[in-house]
Sequence to fold (534 residues):
Amino acid sequence: MVEDKVDRAEFRLLRRAPGPDVTLPSCQSGMLAVGNKAELCMTCAVRHLSICSALEGPALERFAAAVHIMSLDAQAPIFDEGEPATAVFNVKEGAVRLYKLLADGRRQIVGFLFEGDFLGLSGVRGGNYAYSAETVVPSHICRLQRSAIDGFLHEFPKMERQLLDIAAAELAAAEEQMLLLGRKTARERLASFLLKLSERAVRRGKPADPVSIPMSRTDIADFLGLTTETVSRTMTQLKRERLITLLPGAAIAISDRDALQAASEGD
Amino acid sequence: MVEDKVDRAEFRLLRRAPGPDVTLPSCQSGMLAVGNKAELCMTCAVRHLSICSALEGPALERFAAAVHIMSLDAQAPIFDEGEPATAVFNVKEGAVRLYKLLADGRRQIVGFLFEGDFLGLSGVRGGNYAYSAETVVPSHICRLQRSAIDGFLHEFPKMERQLLDIAAAELAAAEEQMLLLGRKTARERLASFLLKLSERAVRRGKPADPVSIPMSRTDIADFLGLTTETVSRTMTQLKRERLITLLPGAAIAISDRDALQAASEGD
DNA sequence: CGGTTAATTGAGATAGATCAACATATGTGG
DNA sequence: CCACATATGTTGATCTATCTCAATTAACCG
Fold:
């Protein structure tokens, strides 16, 4: 526990040690065996949330044929920062964290992904992933060769435009996160985080109020630029002031949304 | 000076006070009078750096016809966060800062733009600008109605793809900035900042070594999530250790690039 | 060249980090 | 199904990097 940071850096080196190219993580937890692959996308519960919604009918069937669904355990690597960006992904179910590491193991989580979120095109620098990706909980992730998606983008300008919109939205979110990291207090950061999680849950068609918090305190800390201890203390503080209620099963009830909103902007 | 933050917040409110829509800043410092508008883009010194490079011949002439060049003083507003995003911009000459404010005046600069940099499509949330933009030094900024650029994007997929690449690069930069803001020390932040400025100068065809620093210490502080005092002290520290030399005229010589690189990653 | 603004330097305060128990889940094999 | 083992979360007591407040100095500009 004391050696946490060093462990993280060493672990990273270990993972990279084997050779220049690592086996694809798709093999690590097994692939779903599916009879009719087309069904995959046609009946996908999160299609309306993702770029796949730009396709219909035969195009969607062709798309489905190129997609592989990976079933991953919790804490499973998807790809590493610096690897050639040969595939793109879509989260079908579960949660993913994207992060960057410093040499000494300090970690910054640059984003969390949930059902319907797209991954692997934006945030790529010079053909390589700009961050690492891991599952937070057991997840189903759709995987598609980059070459394949490039073809679809070329063929369906609507999809490309949608991707541009996604990139613009991600950028706006990134800028908000910069404001949070550069200028907000711990209390403001946590309040902002909880509200944002709630908003995102709503966009996915889930209830706004009991927010599910699938990630650990350490993940939250590394996302908010804090330590676990500060996250824990601040959580307790918000609880004590009755802005939130900690529920069993990694969920949080927002007891006073207005007050939490106020707390997120600096009282 | 003591009331700096409050001033900033009040100033912002004042600027917004007049009415629902503010006069376009293009009128504030005058427009360049140009005989042959087509010449504007055809002979533009930074065309190869910007999205305009996707167009040639007649298409470029049509593009030029739709472009207005604004000549702005230093510290001139370009647009405000929350305004409808009715135009896109390209920096022809000068420097621009993009920033977000909190209600009490705390400011986070989310990016600096230089010659050739594009502005106004990515980072837009729901049709409104996600941040405010101001010039840092006297600048020439190309302005184009959003509806016009949409037409070109539709007509020239090459331009749209280029925009997607730009957005991806911006996102990668934003993620790196999150790592800086969330996990780096003041020393690491400043070293990273100076190196990045140097890299960007090179990409614009300028020398890597005496880096021009057009922005104030306050701007640097608000970009790095620090205070002016800390920026100043850290600058002095790097100078004392002979990693950099402060030159007259807002320039900095990188005396020991390797050491500065090391300092940017945590010694 | 004086006046104004920006940058630097110093002294002291503090939010959040670090170090250290302790508590509470989570899981595992008997 | 319980008792132990391990990971995760909470709480407490310090410590410190950076902020804040306060001068002082340097740069810029008409």
Q: What stands out?
A: The first strand of chain B starts at residue 68 and ends at 72. The CA atoms of residues 78 and 134 of chain B lie 5 Å apart.
